[in-house]
Design brief:
single chain; Rossmann fold; alpha/beta; 7-stranded mixed sheet
Length: 298
């Protein structure tokens, strides 16, 4: 799907007057916007570069947040309950609505969110060339097992998407386990973003299940998956490695050295699943900076 506009897709679910103020941003600001934030009692803001900018106008109300969720779920919030429980709702084209409010809890688990207090509307986008400084080393002699590490919102998924495109364009079969729909942004069976001619996408399924299905059914050379966050995701990575499939994955961490302090990742590191580690960080001026290291040196 060419010509996809992540900003237009994201603002489509906003209440009309807030959408109008978002659309009043300049073309450059719209292209640079990464999130729109709605907080009850505060004017809406846009995250552009390193900081939030007020969109002006009236304060956001609880009714605005309820209307936003209604639009995001097409009037059927109960059908998106699993996502609401996790604090987010996937939107078309890889966008995502993050939610915050009063949690209803039973037996240690979140049943739902009510009395919404704030929302973060993540704007999906691609960044052609963002891997240019890393491409030669990362893709030398084909794909290499690579873990992309950064804090939330620093650009892990954007870099992962670009690596998928480069590998696929180079003729490598890449299977994408896109649990939350943020890598490919599938719409009506087609990706909103250019993943190249040799990418196969499984969306909606948990990463562990999707990985097994993709490896068995599609015979990939490379498996791409976003955000290893559970023991099941770790098992999926180990399964892929055992099948001889190269792995591209992302993980939340401030830096590569901190990975070994987290039991979830220690097994992957101890078993040498990843050869390379890319750390992504946001510079004070909003630019993204990349650092590439061999995992054996960490």
């Amino acid at each position: 799907m060419r010509g996809f506009d992540g900003f237009e897709a994201a603002v489509a679910v906003l209440p009309w007057d807030i959408r109008r103020r978002a659309l009043a941003l300049s073309p450059g600001e719209r292209a640079a916007a990464e999130e729109l934030r709605l907080r009850a009692g505060q004017p809406p803001t846009a995250l552009i570069g390193a900081g939030e900018r007020s969109l002006g106008g009236r304060e956001v109300t609880g009714e605005d947040l309820s209307a936003l969720l209604e639009a995001a779920t097409h009037g059927s919030a109960h059908t998106a309950l699993a996502g609401v429980r996790a604090g987010f709702v996937p939107l078309p084209g890889g966008c995502r609505l993050g939610l915050c409010g009063e949690a209803s809890v039973a037996e240690g688990g979140v049943l739902t969110l009510r009395r919404l207090s704030s929302a973060a509307l993540r704007i999906a986008g691609e960044s052609r060339g963002c891997a240019a400084a890393l491409e030669r080393e990362l893709l030398r002699a084909g794909a290499r097992d690579t873990l992309i590490v950064s804090p939330p919102g620093a650009g892990k998924t954007t870099l992962l998407r670009e690596l998928v495109r480069l590998l696929s364009t180079g003729g490598h079969r890449v299977a994408v386990a896109d649990e939350r729909g943020e890598i490919a942004g599938m719409c009506a069976g087609r990706p909103a973003f250019d993943l190249g001619p040799c990418a196969d996408v499984m969306t909606g399924a948990p990463k562990a299940a999707a990985a097994g299905m993709l490896i068995r059914a599609m015979g990939p050379e490379v498996l791409a998956m976003d955000e290893i966050t559970s023991a099941e995701d770790v098992e999926a990575a180990l399964f892929a490695a055992g099948c001889g499939v190269k792995l591209l994955a992302t993980a939340h961490a401030e830096g590569a050295e901190l990975l070994r302090r987290r039991p979830l990742y220690r097994r992957l590191l101890d078993e040498g699943i990843f050869e390379l580690c890319v750390t992504v960080r946001r510079a004070p001026d909003g630019r993204r900076e990349y650092a590439l290291r061999r995992m054996a040196d960490i």
